């Protein structure tokens, strides 16, 4: 008899301009005892709708895994509803507010997209996010380009503005009783490893794992390593 439905499920949240496909390669290598569900935020108009989407999932408790922007949503949800989150995994996620440089770049995109229709990320933009080796992998680059191309200008702006003004949740995370996992790519230029190391020092109970030869898109660039880290983490916190 299969009791998977009776076991704690795991919910996976995507990053900016992503959908469920950002987790597909990792989930294909992951065999957890409970259900695994990857969601997307494409239809959410603001941060509250993102939080509501997670809140309204048909699970009383679940493991929560967030990538990049999805990690911020995961952190915020966990601090607001600690009774529902059995463990929190943050993958390539900013520690606090966006840098002023990143914030200004996003605001410039707001002005641009007020005039032009978004057509998706081009391959030149990928060099900002990916490790050089990943840039030569057509599967990785095509998945990212295809995911972003599924966004209209309105969707892009809704998602960007929803998480533009991010709070530093370090003190709130320190108060959580659930296990916390941090995962970073050694060569991630969007979320430098030093940020995650600083967070881990402030939250001593948090576990930090670093993936070598990896940029920002960890679940796509290194799915086998990502799956192994999650498997080991969950085996200690079923």
What does this structure look like?
The protein is of the alpha/beta class and 238 residues long. The chain has a single domain, classed as Alpha/Beta hydrolase fold, catalytic domain (Rossmann fold). The protein contains eleven helices and six strands. The protein has helices at 21-28, 47-55, 69-80, 100-113, 132-135, 138-149, 153-162, 170-174, 193-202, 218-221, 223-236, and strands spanning 10-13, 36-38, 62-67, 85-91, 180-185, 207-211. Strands 2-1-3-4-5-6 form a six-stranded parallel beta sheet, with helices on both faces. Helix 1 (21-28) crosses helix 11, helix 2 (47-55) crosses helix 3 (69-80) and helix 4 (100-113) runs antiparallel to helix 7. The model is unreliable at 1-5 (pLDDT under 50).
Helix and strand topology:
Blueprint lengths: L9 E4 L7 H8 L7 E3 L8 H9 L6 E6 L1 H12 L4 E7 L8 H14 L18 H4 L2 H12 L3 H10 L7 H5 L5 E6 L7 H10 L4 E5 L6 H4 L1 H14 L2
Parallel strand pairs: 1-2, 1-3, 3-4, 4-5, 5-6
Q: In total, how many beta strands?
A: 6
In total, the number of domains comes to 1
Biggest β-sheet strands, sense, barrel = 6 strands, parallel
What topology, given as strand order, has the largest sheet?
Answer: 2-1-3-4-5-6
SS class: alpha/beta
Unreliable residue runs: 1-5
Radius of gyration: 17 Å
* CATH architecture descriptor: 3-Layer(aba) Sandwich
Mean pLDDT: 91
